[in-house]
Amino acid sequence: MQAVALIAYAAWVIGVALHHEAWFDEMQAWLLARDNSLGMLVGHYARYEGTPALWHVILWVAVRAGLPFSAIWTLSAACAIAGAAIIVRFAPFPLFLRLGLLASYFYGYQFSVIARGYCLDLLLVPMAAALFPARVDRPLRYALVVGLLANVNVFSFLAAAVLGLELLVRQIAARRIFQRQALAALALAGGCGLFALWTVWQPADNGFLAQTAPQKPLGATLLFLANALFDRGAVWSAVSQAGPEFGIGILLSVMLLGQLVRLALTGRDRALSLALLAAPIMFTAAVYSEPWHAGVFFALIVFVLWINWGNPATDPDDAQARRILIVALSLLEVMQGMQTLHSGIEDIHGSYSAGKPAARAIMAWRNEHPHGRIAAFGMQSFETQPWMPRNEFANYHGGTPKPQYVNWAAGEPWHALPRPAEWSRLLATRPDLVLAAQNWLPSDVKQDPGRAACRAGYGIAQTFAAGMIWRGVVIDNPLILFARATSGPCAKPESSQAPPPA
Question: Are 232 and 332 in contact (CB under 8 A)?
Fold first, then answer.
């Protein structure tokens, strides 16, 4: 049964991943790894991405081993399948809960199909949980996993810091702190943690957060919990996180978290468990989070469940609470499993990214018009870059062949997250062709792109449909190719005879 379930899970992940079109975050990490030395990648560029560099290092090695960008999904799928095997084989939960975890949203789709560094959490967190009981007697392997975990992302770094500190306390309590293996383990975990802190330390000129809107602490926290657990009541609906359905999701999430806390309080690792749950919530409230960061929290919830599952039920209330927790977890797995299925179906039949067809159109036009000026607007326009042999955008570094990745430095004149006023300023430079991400266009242009473009002296040459997927909900994210009009009602008197796209 376990082997059949694992084979079915692997077939699902690979099948969906083969149809998935990589989007901006996947290509950004790949291009950074492809176009930089290891020293520049780790010591400079990774910190602008707001993350430690382990994923970038893996990509750096993969690129030089010959892995093409079209196969980047093999890395995330491998991590997910290996992590799933650990859960199925070693997790202390009943079999139906172990198998249900494979269908959960982050294991079944978000971190397994979409190739980003978060896939490493799917592997390293179960590894840490499996090694946790023997961490005092055999600390070296556990410390290595904790050290690697610190280098995955900021939320994993927080978890690794908690786990590393707990390992230190346990070694002291066991009076093993001066034994060679304990010292080596603590040095390894501490060294990896310090290295992660160095790589992620934010430069003064990182312009990413300056381009994003601030978050309200309470709202961000509730959204974080819902994104990790129950995000809405009607899980198959096409409406995400709005109205009463969202309220139901928050209520269910808080109730499940409460049951988890109650379980943790019955065991000897209560301080560790509460710290693992509190650290990402506090970071979200105080600093920043994106929806997918909740997947790391989900993995940590699995870890806390894992290490506390054997806690004794000392009275009838504890036994009743355990039964309620099992029912709640079963409901969570069913609801997230439906969202996993919905997301996979949408990814197979739709286009997650329009980068590849847009790149083909740009290169076809470039071959016919080698001296034309092409401009890019909005970060999704850069989803074309892995599919083109060089940077073709004249408004990015003057059209030089490299770099093809986004530079997040505050002094970078091209903004991946542009403000609406930047659109009119771009058109005032009169490029022949503009590839624009619809999401970043001014509201009046988004409402009627054709009419707005005509007023500016442009026409729509082609639209490339795409839609990102979150919990089964498709979020339209098309690219629009605008061409400068040289004749007809949209042509401006000052327009020169620049050729339109073929």
Answer: no
